[in-house]
């Protein structure tokens, strides 16, 4: 079967090699699926670089999120059968950037019938992360103000839709007119082009000086530091990641003085520590899809041959929305 493998660490254009490999066998508790769509995620870029917390031995096929059709099941699998359309996370080293991939039964879920294959491929990581960040960690309430950084990216775009579905007023921050227009299309009530405006001043103006109740930050660094200037009394900053490349230090005296909370979010831990909550989240996301409140915005559908270029552009910050590879 055709697949892309990371054969050496580096930027995606350098690290990925097109190969023809044997079809993997699904082990106990796993599924072999025909890939219908594999969403590109920033962790895929980081794994190419060797900078992610998960470091599979070389060579491996990245692609941590996908939608597929079950073609074989391993020993002990009872939840799915051949022919089922499913979504979820891949079991590396046999990731989604290939014609066939391996998935863990425990991290696989039915694909909502209301989404096509590439949309379903984009529902898992970003939306699960957003739901846990906004609801379980930040306990967002209707009527609150939510500030979303990197609002045109995969994680940020999901947070905009989930915030609106929760009844929040959403302010999205994006870089450049193209990304700002995309955040507006996603439903953000106010959009800040960070190249042209200071998001701190906009948030203060839009909230009458009170600040944002919840700040969703996948960027880190100076973005986090500036966010502390516009968080509301008893507000919550959800630390999702460090896409900006800088891991900030935190002045805890400032959190004490302003009475705000700093909440860490490592969504992947829930699969091991509270898998029932992940399944419940998927049911809730499926309901929100059925009710027309959320829908992944896929900006690019790429053939498998164009993966290195697409993943490189994602790593360089030159994409908007979700990029999905279709073998």
UniProtKB/TrEMBL annotation:
One Pfam match: ADH_N
Domain Enoyl reductase (ER): 11-325
GO molecular function annotations of the record: oxidoreductase activity; zinc ion binding
PANTHER family: QUINONE OXIDOREDUCTASE-LIKE PROTEIN 2 (PTHR43677:SF4), SHORT-CHAIN DEHYDROGENASE/REDUCTASE (PTHR43677)
Name of the protein: NADPH:quinone oxidoreductase family protein
Taxonomic path: Bacteria, Bacillati, Actinomycetota, Actinomycetes, Pseudonocardiales
